[in-house]
Amino acid sequence: MKKLSLLFAAAFVLLMQQSCMKDSCRRTYTLQTPIFKTLSQVRAEMHSTAPQPLKATGKLNLFGNTIFLNETGKGIHVIDNSNPASPKNVGFINIPGNVNLAVKGAHLYADSYSDMVVFDISNTANVTPVKFLNNVMKEKNVYWNSTASNNPDSIKVVVGYNTRDTTVDCQNYDMLVKTQVNCPSCAVANPSLLYSAAAPVQTGVGGSMASFTIINNYLYAVGSSSLYCLDISDPANPLQTAVKNMGWGIETIYPFQDKLFIGSRTGMFIYSLNDPANPTAQGSFAHVTFCDPVIADNQYAYVTLRSGTTCNGSSINELDVLDVSDLSRPALKKTFALSNPYGLAKDGSLLFVCDGTAGLKLYEASSPEGLQLIQQKSGLEAYDVIALNKIAIVVAKDGLYQFDYSNPASIKQLSNLSISK
Amino acid sequence: MQGKNLFLLFFCFAAFGSFAQHKTLPFAGSVFAGATEGQQGGSLQLGATVGVKAKSWTTSVGTGLDYYGVRSIPLYLNVEKRIFDRQQTPFVYLNGGYHFPWLKNIKNSRWNTTNASGGIYYGAGIGYQVPASKQIALFFAAGYSFKQFREEITQRYECLIAPCPEYNEKINYGFRRLSLTTGLRF
Question: Which string of DSSP letters, residue by residue, matches A34-87?
Answer without folding.
Answer: EEEEEHHHHHHT-SEES----SS---EEEETTEEEEEETTTEEEEEE-SSTTS-
